[in-house]
Amino acid sequence: MEYLVRTYIQGDYPHICRIERDLFGDYGYSPIFLRQAGELFHKTYLIAAHGDDPIGYIIGAQESDDRKEAWILRIGVANEWQGQGVGVDLLVPLLESFRKRGVKRVRIAISKRHTPVTTLLQSKNFEILSYEQSYYHPDIDRMIMELLL
């Protein structure tokens, strides 16, 4: 099945909220953030869409104080589309967008468990920078990975 990668549009919102809830449950981003991210990070909020239906998304943001630094805030692919290359197809154009904007370092905070996202990031030369205890909450540790562009 084919899909295309494009920037976020307002009609994507309910689909992204559903995918976020399915993937991350109580630890997902709020619907308010997911909507505002479309305004704040328009050029770095990418959607993989099968027809009119989003099947995955990635949200990136440059730091406001140092435009050479950027973060991947979220990458999510609907369960039924995982393992089909959607994550790579979202990550590659985001990294290219960052390069064009002068970003030199991209980071992401992800689960410390070895996951398909960890494998994806390592395949694109991200390296583990650190392990952070209680990064988000007293019980939520994170691994920080980075890529030098």
Largest sheet: 7 strands, mixed
Structural class comes to alpha+beta
Portion in beta strands: 35-45%
How many whole angstroms does the radius of gyration measure? 15 Å
Proportion of residues in helical segments: 25-40%
Sketch the topology as an H/E string, one letter per element: EHHEEEHEHEE
Give a count of the beta strands, DSSP E runs of length 2 or more. Answer: 7
Textual characterization of the structure:
The chain has 149 residues and is an alpha+beta fold. It has four helices and seven strands. Strands 1-2-3-4-5-7-6 form a seven-stranded mixed sheet. It is globular. The model has no long low-confidence stretch (mean pLDDT 92).
What key attributes describe this structure?
4 helices, seven-stranded mixed β-sheet, alpha+beta, 149 residues
In short:
The chain has helices at about 15-25, 30-40, 85-100, 115-125, and strands at about 5, 45-50, 55-60, 70-75, 105-110, 125-135, 140-149.
Question: Would you spell out the secondary-structure blueprint of this structure?
Answer:
Elements: E1 4-7, H1 13-24, H2 31-40, E2 45-50, E3 53-62, E4 69-77, H3 86-100, E5 105-110, H4 116-123, E6 127-137, E7 140-148
Parallel strand pairs: 4-5
Antiparallel strand pairs: 1-2, 2-3, 3-4, 5-7, 6-7
